[in-house]
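Allow me, if you will, to draw on your knowledge of protein folds for a short while. The matter concerns a single protein, recorded as an amino acid sequence and a row of backbone structure tokens. Could you please explain, in whatever detail you think fit, how the structure tokens follow from the sequence? I remain grateful for any guidance, and I place the record below:

…
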Amino acid sequence: MARVKANGIEIEYEATGNKSDPALLLVMGLGAQLTIWPDSLFQGLAQRGFYVIRYDNRDTGLSTDFGKWGVADVPAAIQKVMRGEKAATPYYLNDMAADAVGLLDALGIERAHMVGASMGGMIVQIVAALYPQRTRSMVSIYSTSGRPGLPQGKPEALAMLGSQPDGTSREARVLHGMKLRHTIGSPAYPMPEAELRTFVEKNVDRRYYPEGAGRQYLSIVASGDRVELLKTVKVPTLVLHGEDDPLLPVEGGRDVAKLVPGAEIQTYPGWGHDFPKELIPTLVDRIAGFCKAAK
């Protein structure tokens, strides 16, 4: 792990592979630390000839947090936006996209393949549209355009985003994290309980910080949709989505692919809103093959 100053904040990151290989930036989702990217995917892409970087978004993990701003009132922000008013937020998704580009600047990288999952998909969509000169290609994984009227996630999955553990102990936090993973995970690829507990414990122990996720959620609400922006994307684009995603339904990914000129899309039955180990070799092959072919 290492840390750099970029875009006015400190960003914690990790890199693997040969620095002379094309760079590939992995951008994670809501409240998700860089450690949510499976090591097998992180290392697997490096073994396929990429210099792979994963990092903590602002307000997540070991990067700069915005705790001084205060706790986000997401329901109130949603009501404001629905009334056509602006919601107060400490930052927008555009700022998080600028963080990604700032990290590349700090590392002396001119261009990278941008690979983002969930909220990270939203961020790389913005990078591809606003910073095409820095973007070799874009891979948007189980994300969405944010278009109003798209199907919503299952109520139990959406409810988990704002739910709290039953207490402040480490064990309560771990059990809550396991429940979240059960709820949004892949129905065809359930993770064994012992593996799931180890995975959640690692992330809880690294940093447990739900307040940051609340402010990130606020930034998504306040930033609006990306429908018109996606129409301007010129870089090669691949959309990957699970057909059984309970949090961001596959229609969101299909809308991204429909909006970006020339985009490819591949969906997988039984895949939810996670990275099951059984799918990692398939995803590494698909991402690596696409990025190598991107012109």
Q: What stands out?
A: The chain has a mean pLDDT of 96. The CA atoms of residues 258 and 272 lie 21 Å apart. Residues 2-153+211-293 form a domain with the Rossmann fold fold (CATH 3.40.50.1820).
